């Protein structure tokens, strides 16, 4: 009799271990899309249905693998409650709502839980949910941060006038954006010589940007360097990868104005005489912002304007521009009252061309 009872007890235990679950999960497994642009995926619903013929016992959820705390109070997982106090769910997968815990399902009835894939680390993750014997495998991948670079200014027009130093070119500005994953690591920035970069010292969160300024480093007369000077900036993020971009320093070929002879020679007293001065632009670029000035060094209270600029066809022509290889004219008038030498200075300037000055002389005769 004892032997029969023992055999029945063993059989009963074996059957209990191998008995099929009374719950079926829909879906039977969950593969999350790669998490790359948000800190948490949309909660994914998993429905459990009682396919048995009798009410279920109290349902309980367990988990293994990369799944965070699943214990819940009134359907709210404990990790979500802690999140309200500042402590996040600690797993790659987290049950953010559990409507099944502790319930008894009648035959044909269902309940649901909701699972998220969270950004806690990068890589591939796997876990298993076990709802009273029904297992649901979970798989998901969290992408690493990835940086992108955008040039806000790719080309700088450098213009030099007169002797160095001229205006410093730059800065070129670049935006570094985290386009994937969580927070990047610190940035390391390098540039080709002779440029330097500043900014973007710390990492950035997803969707955030920082700005880098690249400036010309060496104080050299670039107006003697022909053509475009190319530079490269390279950015490395400890977490986030590498990007690079090119930029251009465009050096204008600053020429120097040439002026024709501005000497009147000998002129009769009280006999107004005109003299034409030609201004030539021998440079390779159009002179812009052209201006003409005349200083009469011989002016006095007795003779306030013995020599003066009568007509300016340079600064008043074509909005103050003079094409490369082009010319324009100025008309000076001398009307002297004494038999002496009169002097003055005629100067032509532009924003991007070296200035030129010509002496003006006139000698009065009787």
Structure characteristics:
single chain; 366 residues; mainly beta; Immunoglobulin-like; 26 strands; 46% strand; rod-shaped; disordered N terminus
Layout of SSEs?
Blueprint lengths: L1 H17 L4 E4 L3 E2 L12 E7 L10 E5 L6 E2 L2 E2 H7 L8 E6 L11 E8 L5 E9 L2 E9 L3 E6 L3 E4 L13 E9 L6 E5 L3 E4 L10 E8 L11 E10 L3 E11 L6 E2 L3 E6 L4 E8 L10 E6 L10 E6 L14 E8 L6 E10 L2 E13 L1
CATH class of the largest domain: Mainly Beta
Largest sheet geometry: 4 strands, antiparallel
Mean pLDDT across all residues, rounded?
A: 78
Architecture per CATH nomenclature, i.e. the level-2 architecture of the largest domain: Sandwich
Trace the largest sheet across and list its strands. 1-3-8-7
Shape: rod-shaped
Radius of gyration: 42 Å
What is the assigned CATH homologous superfamily of the largest domain? Immunoglobulins
Give me the count of strands.
26
Query: How many helices in DSSP terms?
Result: 2
- Could you please say which CATH topology of the largest domain applies here? Immunoglobulin-like
Structural class: mainly beta
Strand-residue proportion = over 45%
Question: What count of domains describes the coordinates?
Answer: 3
- The CA-CA distance between the termini, in Å, is 159 Å
**Fraction of residues in helix:** under 10%
Low confidence ranges: 1-20, 80-87, 158-166
H-E string: HEEEEEEHEEEEEEEEEEEEEEEEEEEE
């Amino acid at each position: 009799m004892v032997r029969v009872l023992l055999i029945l007890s063993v059989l009963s235990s074996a059957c209990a271990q191998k008995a099929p679950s009374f719950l079926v999960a829909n879906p039977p497994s969950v593969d999350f899309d790669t998490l790359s642009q948000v800190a948490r995926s949309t909660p994914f619903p998993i429905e459990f249905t009682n396919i048995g013929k009798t009410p279920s016992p109290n349902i309980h959820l367990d988990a293994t693998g990369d799944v965070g705390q699943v214990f819940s109070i009134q359907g709210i997982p404990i990790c979500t409650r802690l999140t309200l106090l500042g402590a996040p769910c600690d797993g790659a997968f987290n049950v953010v709502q559990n409507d099944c815990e502790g319930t008894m399902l009648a035959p044909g009835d269902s309940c649901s839980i909701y699972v998220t894939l969270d950004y806690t680390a990068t890589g591939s993750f796997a876990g298993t949910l076990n709802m009273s014997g029904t297992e649901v495998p979970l798989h998901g991948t969290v992408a690493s941060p990835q940086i992108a670079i955008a040039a806000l200014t790719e080309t700088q027009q450098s213009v030099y006038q007169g002797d160095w130093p001229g205006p410093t070119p730059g800065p070129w500005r670049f935006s570094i954006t985290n386009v994937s994953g969580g927070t990047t690591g610190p940035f390391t920035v390098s540039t080709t010589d002779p440029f330097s970069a500043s900014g973007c010292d710390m990492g950035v969160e997803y969707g955030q940007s920082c700005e880098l300024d690249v400036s010309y480093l060496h104080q050299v007369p670039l107006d003697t360097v022909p053509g475009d000077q190319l530079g490269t900036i390279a950015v490395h993020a400890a977490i986030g990868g590498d990007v690079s971009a090119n930029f251009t320093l465009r050096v204008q070929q600053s020429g120097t104005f040439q002026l024709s002879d501005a000497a009147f020679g000998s002129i009769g007293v009280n006999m107004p005489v005109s003299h034409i001065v030609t201004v030539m632009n021998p440079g390779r670029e159009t002179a812009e912002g052209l201006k003409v000035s005349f200083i009469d060094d011989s002016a006095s209270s007795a003779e306030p304007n013995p020599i003066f600029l009568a007509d300016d066809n340079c600064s008043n022509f074509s909005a103050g521009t003079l094409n490369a290889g082009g010319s324009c004219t100025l008309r000076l008038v001398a009307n002297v009252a004494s038999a002496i030498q009169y002097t003055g200075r005629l100067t032509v300037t532009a924003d991007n061309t070296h200035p030129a000055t010509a002496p003006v002389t006139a000698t009065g005769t009787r």
